[in-house]
Amino acid sequence: MVGVVATVGLLSAIFLITDDSGIDYAHVIASHSLTQQNLQVTLLVFGLALVLVACVATWLIALYSSFRIAGPLFRFSQNLKGLMDNALTMPQAIRKDDLLQAHWVQFDASQARLRAHYDDLQQALHAAEQALQPATDPAALTQALAKLKEVEQRVQL
User: Fold this and answer.
1) What DSSP assignment string belongs to 72-126?
2) Is 111 in the same domain as 157?
3) pLDDT at 24
4) Domain assignment of residue 91, yes or no
5) How many CB atoms lie within 10 A of CB 135?
6) What residue numbers bound the domain in which 105 lies?
7) pTM
């Protein structure tokens, strides 16, 4: 893109320097005074314009990249902070066209499995507490402890 702009600018500078009297480019370059008067200013202006085009192109590429990469990373960090503060917080999904969509699917599945594990753990603890009541039979306590062991086995590495 910058190369195309440079070529077009150089050609337009050549056409601006030549005049309507029929002097061609070779005569213009040979004429030292005309070259000093027009070429330096034209090339300076065009050079600054070329630098500006390169800066804008770089800025647009960086802006687009940051929206597709930094945005999802920020959303991931906010979701993790929310889950650490409150395990019942539902995470916010990233945009469908973001670059980290596969990672989001894995993150969402992981947090769903973690929630299911927390629910199973709460149910097993509640069953164990009920089994520890004085009027319950020992088989219920054994069953509740077995359920707790099963839930605990799922988190072992």
Assistant:
1) HHHHHHHHHHHHHH-TTPPPPPPPTTSTTHHHHHHHHHHHHHHHHHHHHHHHHHH
2) yes
3) 64
4) no
5) 4
6) 100-157
7) 0.48
